[in-house]
Amino acid sequence: MGKIVGLLCLLALSLQVCAQEELPASIQQSVEAVTAATTSVSEDDEQWQLLQQRIHHRISLNTADAAQLTALGILLPNQVESLLRYRALLGDFISIYELQAVPGFDVDLIKQLLPYISTGEGFKPQYGIRDRFSKGERSLLLRYGRQLEASKGYVSVNGKPPAYAGSIDKVFIRYRYNLTGYTSYGVSMEKDPGEAFFRGAQRYGFDFYSAHLFISNYQHVKALAIGDFSVNMGQGLIQWHSHAAGKSAMVLQVKKEGEVIRPYTSAGEYYFFRGTGATVQAGKLQLTAFCSLRKLDGTVPGTDTITDTQVATALQSAGYHRTSTEIAKMNAVTQFSSGAAFRYVGNWNVGANIIYHHLSPGLEKSVKPYNQFDFRGNGLMNYSLDYARTFGNMHLFGELARDQQGHMAWLQGALISVSAKADLSMVYRNYDKAYQSFYSKGFGEIYNTRNEQGIYMGCSLKPAARWTVSGYVDWFRFPWIRYGINYPSGGWEYLLQLGWTYRKNIIITGRVVSRKKDEELLTHIRCQADININRKCAASTRLEYAGFRTAAGLQPGLFLYQDVSYKFRRLPVSIAIRGGLFNTGGYQSRIYAYESSVMYENSVGQYYGNGWQYYLNLKWKLDKKLTCWGKIHQVIYLDKQKIGSSYDMIEGNKKTMVQGQLIYSF
């Protein structure tokens, strides 16, 4: 009887998630946490696209390998290993509901997996070259956005032209052909607000163009990339382009996973390579090699008077080319990159990685105490050894990296399943104060993988049927001075989250996060209730307090929002609405919250000051091939008559954004 009840519960869950188009909650929380840590929202949507593809082309539990299961970004390494051992021991899955018998799998985890898995035979067709380029799906995405209030940069002053060279419109277009697991090609183009269009510095139209061709699983070629692609190695100590999870409420997701080479289709203008790369596989051995030649934005003030050569004093990653100053930095630096990764995939997964970058002109920053160990020169080489192994209920992973000057970076982690109701995670890192790398995203308190030592310990518990408890403690120190901190420093951070499933459709979550860093203490206290009223309607309420304390006193903050989403019964229309109030003492007590938006856009709101905000996000599925989105978002400040600074300053207390998006699939 208990098993029957469990099956019925899982069936109800599958009905709720079968049409899921939002990012999974775990990835939403990760995006929110990374945005709070870096103050910038990731434009990488490749994982979101992959999950949408898997909704239409589900993974078979009976034939999927570890790489396919890991690529979903939902399962931990020991959970993947547990599923594969269960299948090897007991044979094919008869039903997806059999997952509840796999050690380490519970209802919440299975609910996350349901949209992307099946128990079919998983027969892999043998596509020829012509089939690879004809049997896939094509999609065209058109996205338009605009701020309704004109900021200072768009206004002419004393008869002079506006500081921004172009209109306030933001446009993104992406065409992509995809045969999941076999072939992908496409082009993307973007114009940011303020950039010219078919004139000035952008006489060829869009400010950013991207194109790719990606072939997968062709004989011994596991991946072949031509054009734009991303590269991810090990645990990110020498190279990681894609979104990288850090500390968040998903306390067990501390290991970076992913294929070395992935197609690049996003709108960001910095975290990718442009050239060619390939991964070949023979048995348990994989070899990846790549090379790239691309232009970067940088500050090139002139010629070095001592060496009589041109030098760059800084690199820019924002990708904006609106003002004359920004345009002067456009494509000012040429970067050549090449590298290789050799991997053995077996009981031990071991990888040896190397990457080399050459800049022209070279980088020569002015020397200051806090940046005296930063990279300077033309060439930079990094190499590393990464490894992973599962021992029963424990999964070990790590990476040891070195730069060309001999400075080291080391990360060692472990995931341990203590019992069916308790899991642990641990990460130790030690990054030398002088370690240098370009695209590293190592786990830690800061994201430059340098000048940091620390130990992280996380725990996830299920003490009772309706209760979950998770938390982590992280101790860290910075052996050398940093910008604004003229002495070695450190601190600690902890998170404690309690989840209660009141009924199968009501989940109440409480969370406390506190971080002591240098002489500052920041505490966030959050209470949230999520209610699935029925299959058509859901609601979410969040109340969050932030307190930023220094020797000068306390700066408090408060944010309250109400979300409602509804799918109409007789119309192919769904809406998501949020109304929120915020009141913080200043920028240091700001609060972040993930927002519903048009598909494939990561949207995280940043709130500080005193005011309120709302948005309305509408989706209209016109037919099987054409879907439209529309969104309006407005923030109204009660304590300001000017919003923003410099050329982005708005005269008034309102900021309104509108968006429209169309996706045509054929």
Automatic annotation (TrEMBL):
InterPro entries with a match to the protein in the record:
RuvA_2-like
The name of this protein is DNA uptake protein ComE-like DNA-binding protein
Which terms are listed as keywords in the entry?
DNA-binding, Signal
Source taxon at top rank: Bacteria
Statement: the UniProt record of this protein carries the keyword Amino-acid biosynthesis: no
Q: Name one Pfam family in it.
A: HHH_3
| Keyword DNA-binding in annotation | yes
GO MF, one term, reads:
DNA binding
Q: What is the lineage of its organism?
A: Bacteria, Pseudomonadati, Bacteroidota, Chitinophagia, Chitinophagales
In the UniProt record, the signal sequence range is 1-19
Q: Which organism is it from?
A: Chitinophaga dinghuensis
